[in-house]
Predict the structure.
Amino acid sequence: MTYRTQFDTELDNLKLNLIKMSDLVIKNIHDALYSFLDLNTELAEKIIKEDKKVNDFEIAIEKECMRIILREQPVARDLRLITSVLKMITDLERIGDHAVDISKLTIFMEKTASTFKVEQTRLMIETSEEMIRLALDSFVNKDIDTARKCIDKDDIVDDYFDEIKEIVAEALKDHTIEVDYAIYLMMLAKYLERIGDNAVNLAQWVIFSITGEHK
C-alpha cells in the first residue's frame, strides 16, 4: 500500500465516522421532536441516554483528526477536509444537545392537561431535518449546489418560527392554550430555529472543504 493510498483510507474512515455520527444525531432529533408532539416521555428518556453515544463520537473523531494532522501534516484540500470535519462534529454535537433539551421539555410537560397543535411546528420539524440531510448529502457527494439548497431553506424555518409566535400569542389572548404549554412550544420552536442554524453551519463548512471559501 502506497503512502497516498493509506492516507486516503484514513480520510475515508474519518468521513465514514462522521456519517455514522450524523445518522445517530438525525435519529435522536427526529425521535425527540415527535416525542414532544406525542408527549412520549419513555422515548424522551431514551434519547437523553443516547446522547452519550453522540458525545463519544465527537471525542473519537476529534482525536482521529488531530492524530492525522500531527502525523501526516496534510495541506491544501486534505487539510480543509479535516478542518471541516472538526467544525462539523461541533455542530452535530450541538444538534444532539438540542435533542436532549427537547426531550427534557417532553418530560416537564408530562402533567400537561392538554396539548395545542400547530401545523407550522410539524412543518418546521420536517424542514429542519431536511436541512441536516441536505448538508450531509452535500458532504458525501462533494456537491456545492446541495449545500446551498440547505442554506436557502433557513429562511423557511425562520418564517415558520415567526408564524408560530403569532399563533401562540393569539391563543394566549383567547385562553385556548395553557401558559406552560405555550412556553414549552416556543422553546421547541427556538430549538428548531437553532437546529436550522447548525445545519447552515454544516453546509458552509462543506463548501469550505471544496472551495476554501467560508462565510
In short: DSSP finds seven helices and no strands in the chain.
